[in-house]
Design goal:
It is built from twelve helices and 22 strands. The chain is of the alpha+beta class. The strands form five sheets. Strands 1, 2, 9, 10, 11, 12, 19 and 20 form an eight-stranded mixed beta sheet that branches. Strands 13, 15, 16, 17 and 18 form a five-stranded antiparallel beta sheet that branches. Helix 1 packs parallel to helix 5 and helix 2 packs across helix 8.
């Protein structure tokens, strides 16, 4: 019997798991995928929003502002890159100026600090490559950037290091109430828990319906992105938005914490919760609108594109409630869900306590986690000392991102452990550079095969049938 079962190992479920690992609870984190951070967390805008956009008095507003305030400390504890670069919502007309003034007023009411409305001269002074037609902007200095899947992986790893259990490839098929708690079933296994937290993202309405709660629905909203080479990372310094619409914050341009330039997303409501396809139409829109904002974006230096799905709830706000004793919905966590994640975790823990859970602080809780970037960020002297202790750190596998063999091995051995190529990519950035794995893939396959003790040809890109190779064409044991 577990005290708490969390369904969904994205950034929200991961932050809840980490917060609960502070207490003497037996907690398990469940996910239907073969790795963590495989839903909305793996493909979004990576923005820690300041909190000016959400409706005053909403959960989104409250938890966004609180989460934004918490994020820098959380990132520091978890060894995750975080940069407070500030955001600009730019306008091109008198109508846009009215919207910007409304956002300013809303932001002040939400408690966002340091907001300012900029005129043309002030705007172009801090972001000179913006279109000369941009005439005004809302400036939010407390907005920041982070890596969402890195945050989720680190939070879950820290929770596991503090005693939380993770079970992947656990697709929930039924939830049955008991006199004490719930039985959660998959097609292969079952577990029992006193409390259940539904953080299942796009599928949170399906999970809620398993206990008879049909009070909300979730639909996917597709967002396509184009990522540019690190040569373009300093084209702008702030995150640049257009004035928002009911479909979201529009096409943005933003530097990333790893030095690239990110553009997107599109915004298209869908019915299919698995449709992550990209489209020529979507890319054309990204390119056109990006160039309206910053005319000299060099899209010929794009290195990859991708699509994410946002979990849009039917209520217009985060859905965090208790439909029956011992069961908590954490659903409809669309933007600003990433920004709000630390505060959502805090909020849910209060709900558990109010619901009767006995929460006793651990004396041996460790909040710190070693950074996955520690080696590459070390000084030359520190790197030399590390290489003397472990020569694998002196062998560079990914040239584009300068990722060493030692870093890849450390990632494979660290909680939560990856089991495929994409898992290694999300933890180390190997395969994420200009050549997109063209050089380093064979060596990473070798390392994974050896560490997992499987044949070379059984290593997959992202689990399932996505094998990287078909068969051996030469002799060897599959590890050579």
């Amino acid at each position: 019997m577990y005290d708490v079962a969390i369904i969904g190992a994205g950034v929200v479920g991961g932050m809840i798991a980490r917060e609960l690992s502070r207490y003497t609870l037996k907690t398990i984190l469940l996910d239907k995928e073969g790795d963590v951070a495989m839903g909305a967390t793996r493909a979004n805008s990576a923005i820690v929003h300041a909190g000016f956009d959400a409706k005053v008095g909403s959960l989104k507003a409250k938890l966004n502002v609180r989460g934004s305030e918490m994020m820098e400390q959380v990132a520091r504890e978890l060894g995750v890159k975080y940069k407070r670069n500030g955001a600009l919502v730019i306008g091109f007309s008198d109508e846009d100026r009215v919207m910007i003034e409304e956002l300013y007023t809303r932001g002040v009411q939400n408690g966002v600090r340091e907001l300012a409305v900029l005129n043309t001269e002030a705007l172009h002074a801090i972001e000179p490559r913006l279109s000369p037609d941009a005439c005004c902007a809302l400036y939010a200095p407390t907005s920041a950037i982070i890596c969402p899947y890195e945050l989720a992986i680190a939070a879950i790893g820290n929770a596991m290091d503090n005693g939380t259990e993770l079970r992947t490839s656990f697709s929930v098929t039924a939830i049955e109430p008991r006199d004490e708690g719930y039985v959660i079933r998959s097609d292969r296994d079952s577990i029992q828990a006193r409390y259940v937290i539904n953080a299942a993202g796009l599928y949170s309405d399906t999970i809620a319906a398993m206990i008879g709660d049909t009070s909300f629905q979730i639909h996917p909203r597709r967002g396509e992105y184009i990522l540019l080479d690190k040569e373009c990372g300093d084209l702008i310094s702030h995150t640049v938005f257009r004035t928002p619409s009911k479909m979201g914050k529009g096409i943005l341009l933003s530097p990333t914490v790893d030095g690239n330039l990110l553009t997107g997303p599109t915004s298209q409501d869908l019915d299919d919760k698995s449709d992550r396809s990209t489209t020529a139409e979507g890319f054309a829109r990204i390119i056109a609108q990006s160039k309206e904002n910053v005319p000299d974006v060099p899209f010929f230096k794009a290195i990859t594109s991708f699509c994410g799905l946002r979990a849009v709830g039917s209520t217009g706000d985060f859905i965090i409630n208790t439909p029956r004793d011992g069961f908590i919905n954490v659903a409809g966590i669309e933007s600003p869900g990433l920004s709000s994640a630390p505060a959502i975790a805090e909020y849910v823990v209060h709900m558990l306590r109010d619901g009767g859970a006995v929460l006793r602080k651990k004396e041996d809780f460790h909040a710190q986690r070693a950074s996955m970037h520690a080696f590459r960020e070390a000084s030359i002297e520190e790197k030399n000392a590390i290489v003397r202790r472990d020569p694998s750190y002196g062998r560079i596998v990914c040239r584009c991102e300068t990722v060493s063999e030692g870093e890849i091995l450390a990632a494979i051995r660290q909680n939560p452990k990856p089991h495929d190529m994409d898992g290694v990519k999300r933890r180390t950035r190997a395969q994420m550079g200009r050549c997109q794995g063209g050089f380093c893939t064979p060596r990473i396959i070798e390392l994974l095969a050896k560490e997992l003790d499987i044949p070379f040809e059984q290593v997959t890109k992202c689990g399932g049938a996505s094998r990287m190779t078909i068969e051996k064409t030469k002799g060897g044991n599959g590890h050579d």
